[in-house]
Amino acid sequence: xxxxxxxxxxxxxxxxxxxxxxxxxxxxxxxxxxxxxxxxxxxxxxxxxxxxxxxxxxxxxxxxxxxxxxxxxxxxxxxxxxxxxxxxxxxxxxxxxxxxxxxxxxxxxxxxxxxxxxxxxxxxxxxxxxxxxxxxxxxxxxxxxxxxxxxxxxxxxxxxxxxxxxxxxxxxxxxxxxxxxxxxxxxxxxxxxxxxxxxxxxxxxxxxxxxxxxxxxxxxxxxxxxxxxxxxxxxxxxxxxxxxxxxxxxxxxxxxxxxxxxxxxxxxxxxxxxxxxxxxxxxxxxxxxxxxxxxxxxxxxxxxxxxxxxxxxxxxxxxxxxxxxxxxxxxxxxxxxxxxxxxxxxxxxxxxxxxxxxxxxxxxxxxxxxxxxxxxxxxxxxxxxxxxxxxxxxxxxxxxxxxxxxxxxxxxxxxxxxxxxxxxxxxxxxxxxxxxxxxxxxxxxxxxx
Length: 449
Known about the structure:
Helix content: 40-55%
Largest sheet: 7 strands, mixed
Strand order of the largest sheet: 3-2-1-4-5-7-6
Shape: globular
Mean pLDDT: 88
Low-confidence stretches: none
Number of helices: 15
Structural class: alpha/beta
Radius of gyration: 25 Å
């Protein structure tokens, strides 16, 4: 557990403390933000926490994110803040120089991820004398081309989207100074999931065909490294099982994301992918609203969130408050018909509720008299306006609890690998202010595996 802020002798102790904290404070995340007012969530916040953690108390928020505490704060707030920090993964904020990218029209986040991840993969493959890499979910192939160009690795990129396979293949064959004769290549293949075959069977078949192609170049069946960048939702634990079951894989480097897309079943079943470790299963007390816990884990980290200026944070809180007021009104029997995923978009400048109401009535296609809806919504606003400071505090509490939710998911996966005889750990690979999903799961099979 060397990758946590706190020191825990055993993983079961960590899981027990983390689950207790999440259970005690499940009101922070158990409701969707649109339902905060309808579910009465703001009334759970202790009154003496609100003046300390409002959005205009920037210094206090900075302190608590860093794990620092003001002695004058209430004891229960201090205990909560310290627990959040101890149960989170350790993040280093030191910046390092990055190699300049040769790509054009690629966003800085993608460049940061590809450059740093390719360096780590190249380093780990060199340590184990691995020359062949399989990338599951290769996307447009930026990472794989970098691995072949810079690290001299053979890379097989597997992707379910035929368009991405074509685009990645075209990019891989572009003539660049690195495309010298006889160098290692990145190739891309479409992974077509057939109902009669398991994913494991399909991947083994594709790898076998790839081996046959390599053998034509006088290369024997080699040990493989499995990689994944932004392995979404349940794909990460599925890849871990593939890694353990397919004998050719010796190493795994995996960056997970999109925890909110995890498919969790309430009844314990063998194929449930959370919790996945026996240790957490034995300490598992079901927190109410676990699907929203996954959503909380997928949000931006505290370091990423706090980069915003105070005004922008306040605008976001205002927008959340207004949307929850509309939902409170809808719960009276009004049907909201979304025309777009985000019916009322957040403005670059603060807007009053009256202006927001005018947009919402149109965006949600509220039936009946517009003037009647408008007046009723304004009445709801005036009777609840005093709760805005509490909502700001709730947003800060969500920010503080986010690292605990993410750590619980990632540590559960590492412990699962260790329980199955795999050497596994977590390592920060990205600057979380640039790429919030900044941890890579590293795994290696022992020689006896």
